[in-house]
Amino acid sequence: MTALVACLAVAFFAVPLAAVTFVYLVADERVELERAADIAAITAAAQDGAGRSITTLVGAGRDPSAELALYDANGQRVLGDGPATSDAVVQRAADASAEATDARLVGQSDDDLVVAVPVTGGTKPMTVRAATSRSEVYRHVTLIAAGMAVLAVLALAIAWIFALRITRRLTRPLEELSRAARRLGQGDFTARGPASGIPEIDAVGAALAETADRLGQVLDRERAFSSDASHQLRTPLAGLRLGIETALESPDADGRTALRAALAAADRLQITIEDLLAL
């Protein structure tokens, strides 16, 4: 049962965490692309403004798989890695730059996450495109999910081990109590359960021991009562029998005297029975 609860807890925890992780990684990748595109646009504007040819694009993103490309006003790639002609994200960024609005755009082109930043401050309009494959994000999510799965398996294994130990600790004294109760039911009033160190189980064991003591005391009293009753009843019965037998063996004996003696013995027997019942 504990292992099942642990599995459900891990499942309810892992699914939302995986979704949050995916959203976080996508947002983090977008921030990295924006940073790389901004730095590339600044360096390109500085080189173009100084009258130098732009030969390299310098970005500072942490993702080595990110692609940087520079496009001219006609949408042709001038430098870097990317489509030969600008995609929709780059075109929208160039159009927004021409309208003097905030031209940084983030979008998706095919399977790529794309950030487009216009180059401002140069001699001619250009746009920097930074992109990375979404499969890279999925790969990162997969790696993190695999790590989480390993941790979940370890957590379940630890939970199972602890559950097994707790179960054994609980079941062993309960089995001992069950055997003690079985012996008590068979008439062994010396049956006792061992101390387990668990207050609830020890309380049950103490109640079982108290019950055994009381049953033993009741049985002892019943045995003592039976022995005393047997002795008390045997004496008047023997006297009654003796008187009747004597009367039968003596034909000349007075029958009425024998009946009176028997009646007196019966009275004594009745008094003895009433005294025993009053105990």
What value does the Rg take, in angstroms?
Answer: 51 Å
The main pleated sheet reads as:
5 strands, antiparallel
Overall helicity: 55-70%
Strand content: 5-15%
Derived from helix and strand composition plus strand pairing, the structural class reads alpha+beta
**Which strand order spans the largest sheet, edge to edge or round the barrel?**
2-1-5-4-3
User: Which CATH class of one domain applies here?
Assistant: Alpha Beta
Order of helices and strands: HEEHEEEHHH
Give the full name of the CATH homologous superfamily of one domain: YNR034W-A-like
Low-confidence stretches: none
Q: Which descriptor suits the 3D outline?
A: rod-shaped
CATH architecture of one domain: 3-Layer(aba) Sandwich
Terminal Cα span? 55 Å
| Overall average pLDDT | 77
At CATH level 3, the topology of one domain is Profilin-like
Strand segment count: 5
| Tally of helical segments | 5
Walkthrough of the structure:
The structure is a single chain. The chain has 279 residues and is an alpha+beta fold. Among the domains are: 24-137, YNR034W-A-like (Profilin-like), CATH 3.40.1840.10; 199-277, Helix Hairpins (Orthogonal Bundle). It is 66% helix and 11% strand. It is built from five helices and five strands, in the order H-E-E-H-E-E-E-H-H-H. The protein has helices at 2-49, 88-98, 134-185, 199-249, 255-277, and strands spanning 67-71, 77-80, 105-109, 112-119, 126-133. A five-stranded antiparallel sheet has the order 2-1-5-4-3. Helix 1 runs antiparallel to helix 3, helix 3 (134-185) packs parallel to helix 4 (199-249) and helix 4 packs antiparallel against helix 5.
